[in-house]
Structure formats: C-alpha cells, structure tokens
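Moderator note: this is an archived Q&A kept for reference. The question asked for a predicted structure of one protein chain; the sequence and the answer are reproduced below.
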Amino acid sequence: MLDVNTLHFSLDEQKILDGISVRFEARKIHGIIGPNGSGKSSLLKNICRIWEPQSGSIVINGIDSREIPRKELSTLVTLVPQNTNIGFPLSVFEIVSMGRNPHLGRFEGLRHKDREIIERALQQTNIHHLKDRNINELSGGEGQLAIIARALATEASLILLDEPTSELDVKHTLEIVAILDELKAQGKTILLAIHDLNLARKFCDSITILLRGKLFYSGTPEDAFAEENIAEVFEVHVREFKHNDTTFLDFYK
C-alpha cells in the first residue's frame, strides 16, 4: 500500500505539486495521466525520494518513507525514468546488474544469487540475447526494456515507470504492457505515468488525474474518462466505443 498525504513540492520557487493526497492499492497497475507539466514525473520522483517534498508525507506499507534508509528504500521502490540515454559504453548485463547495488555491501561483488536474479530479469524482458551488447547500440525499445530489466533486478515491490512507452513502436509497447501484467500477477504494485490514454484505459486498474499540480481525480478508469473530465483536463472531447469487449477512446476537438 502506498499513501501520498498532502504532498507539496516546489522547484526553483515554482509550485509543482500542490497538496496531493492519493492512495494506491497494492498489487495493481495505477495509471497517472494529465497534460504536460501537470506534475506526473515530479510525483514519481518524490515517491522514490529523488526529490524531497517541502511538506506532506509518503507512506509505504505503513512507514513514512523519510524513516526508511535510502539504501533500504531502493530495495522497496524503483523508478524507470523517461530518458534512457547512458553516457558510458556499458553492456546490457552491466546496466541490469546495477539493480543489485542496493543489496550489496560496500566493495562487494556480484554473488551467485545476484547473477541468477539478473539472468531472470533479462529473460523476463526478452533481452537475454542482447546482454553483451553496448546499451547505446540498442534501439529505443530495446534500451527501454534494458532499463526495465534493471528495475526488476532490484526485486522492489513498488515499480514506478515514467512514460515507458513514449516514442516506442507497437511491438515494444505491447511487450512492455505484457511485462507489466506479468509483474502485477507476481504481486508487484505499479505506478505508470502515461500519455497514451487508450493504453491507460485498457490496462490500468485505477487512474489518477493531475491538473496544474493538483489532484483532479482518482478512481476507476470507467469514471476517469467521463466526457466532462476529459473536456476540463485536456480541453478535448471524447467518445467511447467497444469492439470485441474492448473499450476504445476517440478524441476530437
């Protein structure tokens, strides 16, 4: 369980998150949507304590995250960021192995158990055949899968993803969605900042909408995409239609 309580966050004296309070249930996929600049990425970075809020609290399994040592927190929460550019010529295996760092002592090398976990993460993301490749030589989709594999190697129960399917082709998008469904089945809790509203409507168990740094809505996907919500938040209209029991959204001005 993850509880965000009256969270306030500012950057360079600009208010980014303004009193956000929302609860995310365990073992579900939670979509976070909103226009550009609404605070989606900032919320994720506050949850994993890349950034520290000015006030409010983030409670993970009943414990205030500020009371959890950072190394321990890294075994509980992991973030897959938007930007997967790596400035060094590292192999995919080396990138994924970084996910084991929170579990290792100072100057401690990878143990047999760690290598097994890394291998499993590579298999689960279908990139085991790429493990010796330079991360910077991969396609965008392959690189994103490598960063997700790194997150899996942490064994964190709470996985945060910031626009993981943006700019990816259909094949890699569907691969990532399948991985997220599998992770949910394994008991993981997933928070997903996402622009693709049809993808969010189809695969997420709950939807949280942010607007100008405030919580606009949190609840079921069915109610989230009501015409009045979409009109106010995105300034467009929406129609729903079904095909083979799947609901699709059609947006228009």
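Archived answer notes: The chain has a mean pLDDT of 94.
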